[in-house]
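User: Predict the structure for this protein chain, please.
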Amino acid sequence: MEVFAEYLSRIANPQHRARTEEVLDWVMMKFPNLMPKIAWNQPMFTDHDTYILGFSVAKDHMAVAPESAGIIHFSDEIVKAGYAHTKQLVRIPWNGPVDFSLLEKMIEFNIMDKADCSTFWRK
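Assistant: Here is the predicted structure, written as C-alpha cells:
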C-alpha cells in the first residue's frame, strides 16, 4: 500500500480515504500479480505494462475506470448494481456498498482481454 500512501493522505474526508484504501487493498490482495502505480495523479493497476483498472475520488463517489471495453461489457451489471456510468468510468457512491464481485469480474475481464495487448491502452 506504500505506493498509494501519498495519494491517500491527500483525501480530506476520512470516510472516503478509508473506503478508497479498502478498495485498493482488496485489489492488491485479490490480484497480487497486478502492478500498483500512480499515473496521471491517480491509483491504477497494470499487467505486463498494460492498463487494467484505475480509480479516482470525487465529492459524491469513487470512480472506477476499466476503459470503455469494460464498461460496455458490464453495462447491464453496472446498472443492476445501482451505479451510474459514463463511457469511461463507473461511479460508486460513497454512501452505498462496493460490489466487489462486479469489480472482480471487471478486473478479470481486462486481464484476459488484454493478455496479448502490447500497448498501455486498448487501440
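The two ends are 30 Å apart (CA to CA).
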